[in-house]
Amino acid sequence: MKLFLSMSGPECCQNPPAPSSGGESGDLLQIASLNSYVSGNPDSKVAVILISDVYGYGAPKLRQLADKVAAAGYYVLVPDFFYGDPLTPGTNIEDWLKNHAPEQAVDFAKRVIQALKEKGVTKIGAAGFCWGAKVVVELAKDAEIQFAALLHPSFVTLDDIKGVKIPIGILGAEIDKRSPPELVKEFEAALVANEVNNFVKIYPGVAHGWTVRYKDEDAAEVKCAEEAHQDLVDWFGKCRH
């Protein structure tokens, strides 16, 4: 737990999402006892789980990204791994993390994966954002999923990356104390050394969390987020076959 507390900080909490104003095309369902936002063709044999940052599954930009991924032919789920208790402005993140350590969510995610398999899904990928990246890397180490992506990861260590055996993408920000570019480069070197299929990219001029917390009024940030979204879809496209 000390690892988590030392690696959390103001960056994780900047630019919290506004409440959803609609514009999403998915539905809300219960999957493995978790409230989940789902988008895309439920009969698809390939599913993608998006695991949120500390602000939870209700963040509008995360749900909109789920719709983008779903449009590429996936059944996409965004589960509520916080059981209705996401971080809210004014909450102390260190206190919140004591009840929401990423490892605790790994078992929840495994239940979602099992539910997908039971409905006939044959290939499952996952993308994790900030906090969610730690959950995804644990699933990747256990080969619970077939392909993965980490976006501006928090809590992920070099030893975690060395344990990954499945194709994995890492999308990092130039301005990021949680996963600075130097660490992302170490991640890439470890994947190459272990001959793991990978996609690693550092996006210039953006900060931790930008892919799902970009400011609509910042044209450069929006453009970079859209580039990352397309890179994510393209990466999954290479991994699904």
Automatic annotation (TrEMBL):
GO MF: hydrolase activity
Positions of the Dienelactone hydrolase domain: 39-238
Region (Disordered): 1-25
Coiled-coil portions: none
Keywords for this protein: Hydrolase
Natural source organism: Helianthus annuus (Common sunflower)
InterPro entries, per database record: AB_hydrolase_fold, Dienelactn_hydro
Protein name in UniProt: Putative alpha/Beta hydrolase fold protein
Top-level division of the source organism's lineage: Eukaryota
